[in-house]
């Protein structure tokens, strides 16, 4: 099989890359380890920056997003039992949108399958195995894989390494030319989805002496809630009653926090991770394959989309004008945004979580920081402009 761009991974990064390339008349094939149903049901992120919404809209995949997404103009920070609103739109002129990551994935898969490929290859192959990349420093890299029991090779001109944190692409870059930056936090998030009315129209980020809590949503009838927990938390110790009791306490909510059937529970580890550079020869890493942020800043999927904007434009210029300058600068341009996203996600995480072992001094400093952000227009503008998303370079 032959294509121009071989893409590994059908998450938001790989699918958006394939879609943007198609719009530019560039052929690609996406290889995905999981089934279509699995990637379409995988519960993950939910918050899109204004720029991510604009990117999807301009790419023609924003119709359902605009119909079903919930535009938010502010968030609430709650600490010492009192709520403080950060008016995002008033401070920045931008909105953020709640729309589940798996809905973005469904929209992109539908668009890719409907459009097909110029080469006549299937646009996406699901349930591939044994994926490996070869000759990435040559002009004709290859991807070998097994599909439906048959060993195959995809010959291409470039490879998009969009296979997430546990993929194989990052490992294909020799360790001597790659540098990694890693921080593992001493806590995790227990996340739930429940059939219940959201406690508030806007998201609530709550700091409590027993740990962080976040109240978010997926629709007017489905709530998404997170509780700080230990990295090895045993879910069997968290029956629904305990989850609701803990949410009531940490969010400081009364009857406005409506309980309902919980239909999904999971534990998410918290990590900050970056590799530099994000390119080796003709292999380009994008999204979680190259960087991970703790979810407190809601930046993961948004950073993946920002990487893909640069990569798709770089490839477009290469094929249209034989101009490789943007591809040469890919890593540098992406990393400038990634590190700001890292800083913001680390800062939100540090400010809102309980750190075991912190003494009374650190506790007071943490509350003072929240109080400062909640009362200084300059400080809340800093939070707001990072939260809604910094302007793109490309
Ligand atoms: P993905 O989505 O992990 O997709 C990678 C794909 O590659 C496939 N794959 C392979 N395919 C072929 N061969 C192999 N060897 C393969 N190995 C892996 C995988 O099956 C998968 O389909 O990476 P991508 O596209 O870079 O997207 C990144 C986002 O998924 C991630 O950053 C976000 O989910 C992070 N995140 C959030 N981001 C936001 O922007 N806003 C949020 O509100 C937000 N909240 C969150 C989050 C992540 C969370 N969890 C569960 C980690 C909340 C949570 C709880
Ligand atoms: C979500 O809706 O899942 C969500 C929102 C904001 C975050 C993290 C997750 O910071």
Explain this structure.
- This protein has twelve helices and 20 strands.
- It has helices at residues 12-23, 36-41, 50-58, 63-68, 88-92, 101-115, 240-251, 300-321, 325-328, 330-352, 360-375, 377-388; strands at 5-8, 28-31, 47-48, 70-72, 75-79, 82-86, 96-98, 124-125, 128-134, 142-147, 150-155, 158-161, 179-195, 203-207, 213-217, 222-229, 262-276, 279-280, 283-285, 291-292.
- By secondary structure, the chain is of the alpha+beta class.
- The longest helix is centred in the last third of the chain and has 23 residues, at 330-352.
- Helix 1 packs parallel to helix 6 (101-115).
- The strands form four sheets. An eight-stranded mixed sheet has the order 6-5-14-15-16-13-17-20. A six-stranded mixed sheet has the order 8-2-1-12-19-18. Strands 3-7-4 form a three-stranded antiparallel sheet.
- It has two domains: 5-44 and 101-181 and 271-347, FAD/NAD(P)-binding domain; 183-270 and 355-384, D-Amino Acid Oxidase, Chain A, domain 2.
- Residues 8-14, 31-34, 39, 44-47, 101, 128, 131, 162-164, 166-168, 189, 191, 268, 287-288, 295, 298-302, 304 line the site of 8-demethyl-8-dimethylamino-flavin-adenine-dinucleotide (RFL).
